[in-house]
Amino acid sequence: MPCPLEVPDGLMFGKWKYEMPNGSPVFIAFRSSTKKNVQYDDVPDYKDRLSLSENYTLSIKNARISDEKRFVCMLVTEDDVSEEPTIVKVFKQPSQPEILHQANLLETEKLQMLGECVSRDSYPEGNVTWYKNGRVLQPVDGVVVINLQKMVDRTTGLFTMTSSLQYMPTKEDVNAKFACIVTYYGPSGQKTIQSEPVVFDVHYPTEKVTIQVLPQSSTIKEGDNITLKCSGNGNPPPQEFLFYIPGETEGIRSSDTYVMTDVRRNATGEYRCSLTDKSMMDSTTITVHYLDLQLTPSGEVTKQIGEALPVSCTISSSRNATVFWIKDNTRMQTSPSFSSLQYQDAGNYVCETTLQEVEGLRKRQTLKLIVEGKPQIKMTKKTNTNKMSKTIICHVEGFPKPAVQWTVTGSGSILNKTEETKYVNGKFSSKIVIAPEENVTLTCIAENELERTVTSMNVSAISIPEYDEPEDRGGDNSEKVNDQAKLIVGIVVGLLLVALIAGVVYWLYVKKSKTASKHVDKDLGNIEENKKLEENNHKSET
Length: 542
Hints:
Layout: E1 11-19, E2 25-32, E3 38-40, E4 50-52, E5 58-60, E6 70-77, E7 81-87, E8 98-100, E9 106-107, E10 112-122, E11 127-132, E12 135-136, E13 144-152, E14 159-167, E15 177-186, E16 189-194, E17 198-199, E18 202-203, E19 209-214, E20 220-221, E21 226-232, E22 241-244, E23 252-254, E24 257-260, E25 269-275, E26 281-286, E27 288-289, E28 291-296, E29 299-304, E30 312-317, E31 322-327, E32 330-331, E33 347-354, E34 362-383, E35 390-399, E36 403-409, E37 412-414, E38 419-420, E39 427-436, E40 440-447, E41 452-459, H1 475-514, H2 527-541
Parallel strand pairs: 9-18, 20-27, 29-34
Antiparallel strand pairs: 1-2, 1-6, 2-3, 4-5, 6-7, 8-10, 10-14, 11-12, 11-15, 13-14, 15-16, 15-17, 19-21, 21-24, 22-23, 22-25, 25-26, 28-30, 31-32, 31-33, 33-34, 34-35, 35-39, 36-40, 37-39, 38-39, 40-41
């Protein structure tokens, strides 16, 4: 505390004193201007705490509340005594406030002690304010009750402020942050210190029940596992519920979940849950999607060529299903229909169906169709372009694949081994190349598990040219050729019948007129070839 007076000329000494509450002075320090010595009075409160400088500035260390006094600086000359007071104020910052005796939990609609805010060692006394989420809590009768107490320590003179808060919470107070702030005064003015915020567990009753289906999928299919979960919006949440299953009149008591495994279509319906006292209830509807497929016939089926085979793929589903057919790993454009089975109809058929809206719901059944047939043979021959050999082809149909053998009757050399084409759709061909020295007969034998078929063909000597016969081309072209051949055969047969009738009439006429007979060749086959064979035999005899 600097002395407020100017040091006058002729100063003899200076003194500091303080005034008691009753106004009486207590001297505490003396300094002579001539002897330069300092003396401190025997005052217990200031022992070893004072220091007086040459310019008469008084310093007090380890300030105390009791130092809050009126101090006076005195300067004395021979002619005058001057005095000037200094008012000392002492401040002590309080400790950070704490919320003590906190409630374990808060219940709605019930006024209860939330806690006490305590701040210690303040001087002068401070004030306490409660806050919720940063806003001041104002007293409200029956809802917010605040009681502030201030106590002073008689030894230190410091104040302790204690503020209790009674509070009636609501659901909105969940996760609310409660804090208290102490306001105190310091040398520079008003200041505040805030406590750490506290969050309380607020209990409130359940007002609504909700049922959920887990997993939360838009579609459920047969075979799935589903879990019903019931929850209440109270705190703490209910731990037990009643679950009502379609077809059951009484609720099933369970925890907050009810599990159903490998559900079937009959699980479709309304599911409900309620509190155990049946006071609240919620419901949801579950649809279990299903997909059935019935393929008739299915598995391995063996039929004979030319037979009919009705095939049906019947679908039953909870929604419109997509159906498609696959044959030998290739998707078909239409459903199979067999009015007359052919070898190319054989294969592995799959009828498959899906529900596009339901992931993973897919069904399929297979039909392995085997078309069997006895061996059928057609033989063709032609003279090769080199005029040195002839090619004889045996066209074979049948399943299981027939084994083919050749036999030659007559003189002629086989120029190479028999060759077979690829076996496709029950058809293949076997051919040999021969150079006959004379007329020969070739026999093609085809045999499978069903039958043995034998067909022979006469082949002229190499010196006699053969008319080329078209090979069996198969497929659509062969069908067209067959149709054309049937038409031609029909025309030829009609012409032959007309010629036969004309011949009979002519024969009767000649018999009556000339009584002559003629030999009619019974062979209506290849007349030109027979003539050539006769001429060749006649030359051999000569």
